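Design request, tokens follow.
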């Protein structure tokens, strides 16, 4: 049984970024990934393979609160779900770190502030090649540094929509995107702005994801070991329950055990919670690190509605996901509604087979003729409305004795979301011939739109300053265990209304600097950020 300085479980945005941060220290790092390396093959770009045949999606079943099985929209590969995400990389807004009153309840404060996260956001934006423009988003603080990469140019159809919204007094802005795009040299640019970005693995590896940005650059290092096909099932501790002593995983060859001075969970919000719950022992009878009874609870994922609009004429769009709107993020600017509503962004291009795949869980693709679906796709724009899902203790992950994941979930906080959907629908009058909202919260949980489904999951191992109400401290270390950290979206106390990946990356960089200090490998950059361990912290203040 080999021993490592750090064992990281999961290779996605959190785990991959943390490994990248620690690698230069020379400390021995083991990354355990349940999936394999994603093959580079023609099917990477096939809408039929990706959306209808679900070639890369897991086939495992989870179970909803009624005991009904469903297939989560989850991908187990090196790089995790970021390999398939839409590359939208946005910061949480300043107020997102504070307690915020919503129509449906309270979004709790974080134990860190935007001030604490700002330098790590800036580093993450540079590292993940985020293209954007400051000054147009009305929810910005105003002191953010310029993006290192210029915003992605609008296609003609999107430029028309931008002008249409501006004519109504809206303030649309360029959606920050993480892609390896050189707009000045399109012939040699890695990214070609194709129609197969969000939802697909990038065949050109031009999308900024954990696979290409974090993991692959580490593969030649002698102190970093990546082992695939290792599904971690539980963690064992010393008799007192203060230290993780062994990491147990399943492989095709049977059980393996690994040890590390520091153990980091980054398996995804549902799976990280499941590992902790399955690791119950005499010292932790309700699950590892679960003295607060918060592990598995407060499961969140964004409330989402896709606004599908159709025109009589073909839409001149190949790469539509370049535009967003935050005018209604904190409420209606006209003063009619003073609670948060959410965020609007353009969705990826959807081919006819992509459309068929989105409804395949409840309408067999064979019933949708290709000619019809392709004709619709050529005349369609799709916009996504994202609103905050509030953390409720009863929305939770549970694990059965045989390891089955049960997800108890009830939708909440819909009032602001429905208002924003209505605003978007009305705004399209005069621009499109027909628009129809498709809302995932209108479906039973087992029949969600596969494009969204369990994406953006968060909150099941929340961090905080009070061990009675949180599982992790402000550095994402388990309150009750000296060497256990969690750096995927499990740590989120709230989910805000923007895509969570950039925050996950920035936090992993922050925790990485803390671990470098703990490992005796402090760097000038870390010291310049003053990342001394916080003793107490109030939301809205910087770390002492």
């Amino acid at each position: 049984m080999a021993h490592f300085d750090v064992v990281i479980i999961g290779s996605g945005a959190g785990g991959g970024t943390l490994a990248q941060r620690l690698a230069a220290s020379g400390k021995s790092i083991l990354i355990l990934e349940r999936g394999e390396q994603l093959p580079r093959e023609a099917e990477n770009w096939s809408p039929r393979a990706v959306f209808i045949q679900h070639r890369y999606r897991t086939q495992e079943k989870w179970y909803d609160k009624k005991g009904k099985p469903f297939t989560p929209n989850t991908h187990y590969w090196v790089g995790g779900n970021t390999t398939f995400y839409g590359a939208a990389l946005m910061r949480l807004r300043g107020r997102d770190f504070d307690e915020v009153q919503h129509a449906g309840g309270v979004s709790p404060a974080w134990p860190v502030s935007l001030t604490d996260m700002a330098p790590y956001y800036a580093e993450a934006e540079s590292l993940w090649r985020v293209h954007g423009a400051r000054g147009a988003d009305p929810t910005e603080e105003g002191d953010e540094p310029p993006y290192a990469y210029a915003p992605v140019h609008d296609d003609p159809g999107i430029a028309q929509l931008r002008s249409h919204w501006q004519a109504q007094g809206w303030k649309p802005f360029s959606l920050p995107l993480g892609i390896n795009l050189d707009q000045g040299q399109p012939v040699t640019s890695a990214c070609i702005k194709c129609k197969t970005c969000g939802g697909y693995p990038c065949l050109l590896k031009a999308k900024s994801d954990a696979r290409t940005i974090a993991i692959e650059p580490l593969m030649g290092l002698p102190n970093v070991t990546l082992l695939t096909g290792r599904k971690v099932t539980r963690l064992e501790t010393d008799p007192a329950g203060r230290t993780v002593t062994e990491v147990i995983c399943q492989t095709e060859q049977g059980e393996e055990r690994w040890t590390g001075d520091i153990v980091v969970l980054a398996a995804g919000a549902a799976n990280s919670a499941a590992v902790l719950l399955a690791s119950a022992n005499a010292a932790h009878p309700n699950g590892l690190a679960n003295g607060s009874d918060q592990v598995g609870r407060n499961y969140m994922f964004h409330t989402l509605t896709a606004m599908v609009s159709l025109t009589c004429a073909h839409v001149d769009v190949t790469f539509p996901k370049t535009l967003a709107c935050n005018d209604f993020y904190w409420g209606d600017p006209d003063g009619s509604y003073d609670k948060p509503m959410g965020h609007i962004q353009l969705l990826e291009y959807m081919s006819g087979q992509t459309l068929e795949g989105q409804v395949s869980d409840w309408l067999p693709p064979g019933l949708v003729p290709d000619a019809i679906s392709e004709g619709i796709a050529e005349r369609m724009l799709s916009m996504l409305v994202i609103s905050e899902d509030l953390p409720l203790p009863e929305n939770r992950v549970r694990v059965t004795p045989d390891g089955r994941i049960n997800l108890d979930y009830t939708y909440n906080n819909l009032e602001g979301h429905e208002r924003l959907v209505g605003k978007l629908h009305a705004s399209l009058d005069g621009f499109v011939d027909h628009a129809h909202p498709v809302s995932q919260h209108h479906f039973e949980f087992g029949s969600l739109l596969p494009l969204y489904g369990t994406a953006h999951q968060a909150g099941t191992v929340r961090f905080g300053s009070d061990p009675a109400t949180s599982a992790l401290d402000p550095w994402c270390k388990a309150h009750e265990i000296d060497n256990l950290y969690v750096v995927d979206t499990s740590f989120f106390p709230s989910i805000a209304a923007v895509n969570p990946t950039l925050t996950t990356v920035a936090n992993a960089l922050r925790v990485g600097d803390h671990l470098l200090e703990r490992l005796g490998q402090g760097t000038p950059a870390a010291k310049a950020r003053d990342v001394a361990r916080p003793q107490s912290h109030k939301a809205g203040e910087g770390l002492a």
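Comment from the thread starter after seeing the answer: thanks! Residues 360-369, 443-452, 526-544 have pLDDT under 50 and may be disordered.
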